[in-house]
Amino acid sequence: MFKYIYILLLAVFVFSCNLKNDDRKVVAEVYDYKLYKDELDNQIPKGISEQEKKLFIDNYILKWSKDHSILNKAANNSLIFSNKEPDIEKQVADYRNSLIIYSYETRLVEQKLDTNVNYDEIKKFYTDHKSEFTLKDDIVQVSFIKLDINSENIKQTRKLLKSKKEEDAVKLKNIAEDKAVNYFLDKNTWILFDDLIKEVPLRTNNRNIYFSNNKYVEVKDSLYTYMLMINNYRIRDNISPLNFEYNRIRSIIINMRKIALIEKMEHDVYNEALDNGAIKIFN
Known about the structure:
Layout: H1 2-18, E1 26-30, E2 33-36, H2 37-43, H3 50-75, H4 88-112, H5 119-128, E3 139-148, H6 154-162, H7 166-179, E4 182-184, E5 191-192, H8 193-199, H9 207-213, E6 216-220, E7 224-234, H10 242-275
Antiparallel strand pairs: 1-2, 3-4, 3-5, 3-7, 6-7
Helix pairs in contact: 1-4, 5-10
């Protein structure tokens, strides 16, 4: 299968080359195939040195020559074109047509797709499909700071982490930015618990019980002190919260718009051809 795809792609390239004028400068030739200077020039990367350019040209011509030697052998091998094998010319035409359609649809989407999705749309989609958003992993909302084990800020950080005052939150952020080895203070953002334990050496067999019984956690190893407040948690197999699914839902809505846009284009273009009498079906 891969052999036919390889030959197919080479054939597309050769087909495009053969449409060109033969009065251009030829830089390589293999059997009836010609590589023209302008085609080679278009392949040379911009901004490379003369030495790199020469090496690139030598390698490109060598590969082109090998490819077209194989293509000539394959094109003249009766086994490839036996009745048991796919019609290569039809594959080339189908492949070219697919490329044209794909390119047109891609440009259409780039120009016309509305990627602005507001919060109300996302919330409505979440509400209408809530049962489909089931957690596959445990997630938590935490405030976390990792300090050197000998840090003089441990006692103050512990107090600030437990505080609910806005001014203490500012002080905590200042300590984190200035003294912490690592930290995460966005307590409204959900993160995977598995990602948290990559950073904090927590050990628990039953996470539901652990989360229920622990709001403030402090652990140490030989180098660091880890302090965190567990602000909220959700256990796997429960409904996933909206703000954890926000970006995923936005992508779903945009993809739905993309599909609808392409389907409308196909419908409109087909009807236009019908109205113009361009579609004729013969018995």
